[in-house]
Specification:
CATH class of the largest domain in chain B: Alpha Beta
Number of helices of chain B: 24
CATH topology of the largest domain in chain A: Rossmann fold
Strand content of chain A: 25-35%
Structural class of chain A: alpha/beta
Largest sheet of chain B: 10 strands, mixed
Helix content of chain B: 25-40%
Number of helices of chain A: 4
Largest sheet of chain A: 5 strands, mixed
Number of domains of chain A: 2
Distance between the termini of chain A: 40 Å
Oligomer: heterodimer
Number of strands of chain A: 7
CATH superfamily of the largest domain in chain B: Spore Coat Polysaccharide Biosynthesis Protein SpsA, Chain A
Shape of chain B: globular
């Protein structure tokens, strides 16, 4: 075990020094990407790794189910009145890939329960943040809506003993029908 | 006193306990007087267990103790034995049951004198949740090496190596009380200090190692174990998390008892390997629908204690090192960069030979020995992207059939190296001619017998009723026929009883004046639930009961003096419950593997049982309404979708047991708020998550449905329900009823929560 741990540590060191191949860097680096340096549509959403030629990309709020696109990006899940219906509509709008970006909260010890935090709503705010899902919560929403392949592009944080405080992070999910 | 049957129980186990006690007391006769006692340690349950035991104590010798708080499952096991006074102690889980004739068999054996024994383990049949049929075969790792033969292990290390895992299962374990007491007397705290989950195993192991005597194995299936309600949720979620917890506790226990260099320790680790670290299991975890990095890392935690085993390095580690991201990528993008497998096509590539029976009894457990051969140049691979599976399918008349099985091949099958697999299945639960086929299925191709008939074995199996000697089992299975709770010879109510019995299913138990309807919710449960609602004074007020079903709460509000009561329902009135269950099980049976079932409501509305005009599910409400001469107004409206404004506002809105069935909880509460003039009483399925007593979170049950109910969607914590109510527009929310449980950190407890929400 000590040997494996040592190799992992040196691999991480190589990545930090820029000596590891790009793929390893992408896989191991969990820091939020630099927004300014990347194109707007794919900033941190993992789209840079996809071949978007020939695909239409719809970047909208909660889709209303009237239009379909190959790639649909949903950034307002945390503000949706009804997150389940939002994801069901997202499924109806998506032909190839749905990208969900949302603030998320992980509750250590309860990563596999499909939890979604209910946030207090200030009636004075026009579009309040109502939810903060966990990664498994988003997975459950997607699977229930009919997506069959759900992958986390950014987040959740690496699994390690991290105390009992809720962990807040940014989650990007790719879901395919 | 010869034998004490010690039953630890806890909140929410009342029905299972009633079933267990029925199975036990049905076998207790006058010949057992003074020989057998029942000891029940109750972990502060509030589900009517005390009343159940009180009734039992009128006719049987019962020692009952109810703790004033939840002391934990393991401590409760020890507490139940502390109540015993018998020479022998039979540990009995409250959700299992004794097989017919088991008590006599055990008492006879103990009376015959087993002076050299510390205790014995009994064989068990693993039944389904309803305890109707044997469903899951016992994994070989749980049983002794020669499981069919009665054995006595005189060497304590041998006893632990052979029966160590079986001893963790309570109901299969009988111990001499003197041996138990002698260990506890040395250090009462040691069992729980050593292992949090299995202190009874520590006591048994210590008694054996201290020279207390031998341990026996009785292969007869004297115990019926209920599967499907494992302790996974209590141990931290998924099966992997629970297995990590269990395996760590077991390794701690065996290390404390034997030490890490003992051969018996190694033998037990081999058994653990077979249960949790075999390649098929690892593949299931890494490639299943819930595969994730977290699951991988948990898997590492699970198998870590097994690194001493050569088989672990040879067979499990290669699977463990296969990163699931790579395999998922290969599966979804259909990588063709390098040849990982091939689709089989054409004839003469594979052959499956199985000895199939000609006949079987209804629900009988069948073990099939299948030989899988690869012919020609083809290999039957287990790896992606086109793995080959062995399938077992039943086809024939009637509804009740086991679901099709798809089993991972144990290894790649090469020409000249056939693979022999033991497969278990149950016979169908309806009589007649059924076709049993055992064949191969390949991802991307489907059933191989479509292209190569030799790759499947089929036989028509005649399924007949169970033999007469099996009849006593009926004593311990719940009767499928509705039971009218009334005096048996009461002619005055004969007509009413017949009318009640004609209704296929009742949800509520309603007293119709001498005849109580046989609801799934018993009168005691309903009385408790009604009291827990803390209803305000309803005299002269208007009441809306949303999701009325059979109308128990509507009629209760009417009795309480409400001026106007409206019973609103739609879903369960438009379809009969049993018919829906049949439709749903057919949908599940036809679902392709790996696919998530469709929305149950869509299924119901599209099926031929859906009748929103004839309202077959309202027959119970109508009968109760007529019989009671009630003035409750039934209204058929879809609460989630229809316009309810014409109904007006009601002083009191009862929203009981509905919220968690709705996919949009916030929208539902907004509707309740719109209908509510003063106060809404909201009761729902809920959760409490350990470590975060005030967290406002809700569990979304997209694929993992609570209680296997496909209509369940959300389970909030008490704090989340409060936030939902406030967001829906209510000005004040007050929690009533029992306080939610406080599970230990990392675990979760399901519970019910009731609030009064004021407009």
């Amino acid at each position: 075990m000590a040997l494996i741990r040592g190799r992992l540590r040196s691999a991480a060191g190589r990545v930090r020094r820029g000596l590891a191949p790009t793929r390893a860097r992408t896989r191991l680096d969990r820091r939020p990407p630099d927004r300014g340096a990347r194109p707007t549509v794919s900033a941190g959403l993992g789209l840079e790794r996809l071949d978007l030629a020939g695909l239409t990309v719809l970047d909208a709020g909660p889709p209303d189910g009237t239009a379909t696109a190959d790639v649909v990006v949903l950034r307002d899940l945390h503000r949706a009145e009804d997150p389940a219906t939002a994801v069901f509509r997202l499924r109806a709008s998506t032909r190839v890939l749905a990208v969900i970006e949302t603030p998320a909260t992980e509750w250590p010890g309860h990563e596999e329960r499909g939890l979604i935090e209910v946030l207090p709503v200030d009636p004075a705010v026009a579009a309040p943040e109502r939810w903060s899902p966990s990664a498994d919560g988003v997975r459950e929403l997607c699977l229930a809506a009919g997506f069959t392949d759900v992958r986390f592009v950014t987040g959740p944080p690496a699994y390690r003993p991290r105390g009992w405080r809720p962990v807040h992070y940014r989650l990007v999910v790719h879901a395919r029908p | 006193m010869l034998l004490s049957v010690c039953i630890p129980t806890h909140d929410g186990r009342r029905d299972e306990l009633a079933h267990a006690l029925a199975a036990l007391t049905a076998q207790l006769g006058p010949e057992h007087a003074g020989d057998v006692e029942i000891c029940i340690a109750d972990n502060d349950s509030a589900d009517g267990t005390a009343e159940l035991v009180r009734d039992l104590a009128r006719t049987h010798r019962v020692v009952y103790h109810r703790h004033d708080r939840d002391i934990g499952a393991a401590a409760n096991v020890l507490a139940s034995v502390a109540l015993a006074s018998g020479e022998w102690v039979w540990l009995h889980s409250s959700d299992d049951a004794l097989a017919p004739g088991a008590l006599d068999a055990v008492v006879r054996r103990l009376r015959d004198g087993e002076d050299e024994l510390v205790g014995l383990s009994l064989g068990r049949a693993r039944m389904d949740r309803g305890m109707r049929r044997e469903e899951v075969p016992e994994p070989a790792a749980v049983l002794p090496d020669d499981p069919e033969r009665p054995q006595v292990f005189t060497d304590p290390r041998e006893a632990l190596a052979q029966a160590g895992i079986m001893q963790t299962f309570l109901t299969s374990t009988i111990v001499r009380r003197a041996a138990w007491v002698s260990v506890v007397a040395q250090d009462a705290g040691a069992p729980q200090r050593t292992t949090r989950l299995f202190p009874h195993c520590y006591i048994i192991g210590r008694a054996l190692l201290d020279g207390g005597g031998a341990w026996a194995w009785d292969p007869r299936k004297l115990v019926l174990a209920r599967t499907g309600n494992e302790i996974f949720s209590a141990l931290g979620g998924g099966a992997v998390s629970a297995s990590v917890e269990v395996s760590r506790e077991l390794v701690k226990l065996w290390t404390a008892l034997l030490g890490p260099r003992d051969p018996a320790f190694r033998a037990l680790c081999e058994r653990a390997w077979a249960l949790w670290a075999s390649p098929a299991w690892i593949e299931h975890v890494k490639l299943g629908p819930l595969a994730s990095t977290a699951a991988d890392l948990r898997l590492l935690g699970l198998v870590r204690p097994l690194w001493r085993l050569p088989r672990f390095w040879k067979e499990s580690v290669p699977r463990l090192l296969l990163p699931h991201l790579v395999t998922h990528g290969a599966r979804s993008t259909r990588l063709r960069a390098f040849r990982m497998g091939q689709r089989l096509a054409g004839r003469g590539l594979a052959r499956v030979t199985t000895e199939l029976p000609d006949g079987a009894e209804v629900g009988a457990y069948l073990r099939l020995r299948c030989t899988v051969e690869a012919l020609g140049a083809a290999r039957l691979r287990t790896a992606l992207p086109h793995p080959v599976y062995l399938t077992v399918d039943w086809d024939g008349p009637g509804e009740g059939r086991p679901e099709p099985q798809r089993l991972v091949l144990g290894r790649t099958v090469r020409p000249g190296h056939p693979l022999v697999m033991d497969v278990s299945t149950s016979a169908p639960w309806s009589t007649g001619e059924h076709v049993l086929s055992v064949g191969l299925w390949q991802q991307g191709l489907g059933r191989l017998d479509a292209v190569d008939p030799a790759s499947a074995t089929r036989r028509t199996v005649r399924v007949v009723e169970q033999a007469v000697e099996e009849a006593p089992r009926a004593e311990v299975t719940p009767s499928p026929e509705p039971v009218v709770v009334a005096e048996p010879h009461d002619d005055e109510h004969a007509e009413l009883r017949a009318a009640v019995a004609r209704i296929p299913s009742w949800w509520h138990s309603i007293d119709l004046g001498g005849v109580v309807t046989p609801g799934t919710k018993t009168p005691e449960i309903l009385a408790e639930e009604l009291a827990a609602l803390h209803l305000p004074d309803l005299r002269g007020r208007t009441v809306l009961d949303i999701g009325a079903w059979d109308g128990f709460y509507s009629f209760a509000a009417e009795r309480a003096g409400a001026a106007r009561v409206v019973a609103l329902d739609h879903l369960v009135w438009s379809a009969e419950l049993h018919a829906f269950r049949r439709v749903w099980s057919r949908v599940l049976a036809e679902l392709p593997p790996g696919r998530v079932p469709p929305d149950a409501l869509d299924v119901m509305e599209a099926s031929d049982i859906w009748d929103p005009v004839g309202l077959p599910g309202r027959a119970g409400f109508d009968l109760a309404h007529r019989t009671l001469g009630s003035t409750v107004e039934p209204v058929v409206r879809d609460f989630a979708r229809d316009d309810l404004a014409p109904l007006g506002r009601f002083d009191v809105v009862l929203f009981l047991g509905v919220l968690y069935h709705l996919r949009d909880p916030l929208g539902a509460l907004r509707r309740v708020h719109a209908l509510c003039g003063d106060v809404a009483i909201i009761e729902t399925e809920a959760i409490a998550i350990g470590g975060y007593p005030h967290a406002a979170v809700a569990q979304f049950m997209g694929t993992r449905k609570r209680n296997y109910d496909p209509t369940n969607w959300w389970a909030p914590t008490a704090a989340a329900l409060e936030r939902w109510c406030l967001a829906a527009g209510f000005s004040r929310v007050e929690h009533v009823g029992r306080r939610p449980p406080e599970p230990r950190a990392g675990t979760m407890s399901p519970c019910r929560v009731t609030v009064h929400a004021w407009r």
